[in-house]
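Weekly structure sync, notes
Attendees: PL (lead), two postdocs, one rotation student
Agenda item 3: pending single-chain targets
PL asked that the sequence for the first pending target be pasted directly into the notes so everyone works from the same version. It is reproduced below exactly as submitted, 227 residues in total.
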Amino acid sequence: PANEHLCMQIASQIFGISTANNGLCFFGNGNPAYLAKRFDIDHNGKKIAMEDLAGLAGLTKKNGGSDYKYCNLSYEECGNIIRKHTDSETEILKFFRLVIYNYLISNDDAHLKNFSLITNQNGKSVLSPAYDLVNTFLHLGQPRIFALDKGLFKEGKPGNTITQVSKEDFEEFGRRLQINAKTIQQELSTFANTTDNVKDLIERSFLSKDLKITFWKTFCYRQGRIR
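Predicted structure, written out during the meeting:
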């Protein structure tokens, strides 16, 4: 719970990523509970149309295998799906930023069902607020670099170890999403050089002392890979 709460707070407070409203509370015995407010229900209690990328791609266990959330698409192909259904440069940029952020926080569980499109008040499809943001390295120790087997690119460029991922990969990823070069550099610079406020939130989080150190070290290392 403390892990996910921290990752969601860094996303929204430091990097301006829209997230589900969330909080951390504690039971009488001291155990923590993470709470997230549903964003697919309107103020009248009516369900808002929302579909994750697995559904938009037509993938299920039946036609995509037991690991259908991980093994069929790349993030580039996910971007193409978002563009097809939103036709908006704003939503593509939001997706680009979220992929970078998941990389920085060592979230290797950003699979197809953890990205969704939702219908806004104007009846248009937009990227939903981010959810399920978590540093999986703190729990697994030996995470994959990307949740999707194919990684960033549709041809499945290797990226199984951290040393195989670089700034150039994210620059190419941005180009393939048709984001202009200046914006790509601005975004990478923001994610690569924002540190003090991130460290402050880590220190004020409810993680144990050892996990705070691990979180900070892994975050800084990955920042260095995209400078």
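Discussion points:
- Residues 31 and 51 are 33 Å apart (CA to CA).
- Strands lie at 22-26, 32-36, 50-52, 116-119, 125-127.
Action: rotation student to compare against the earlier draft before next sync.
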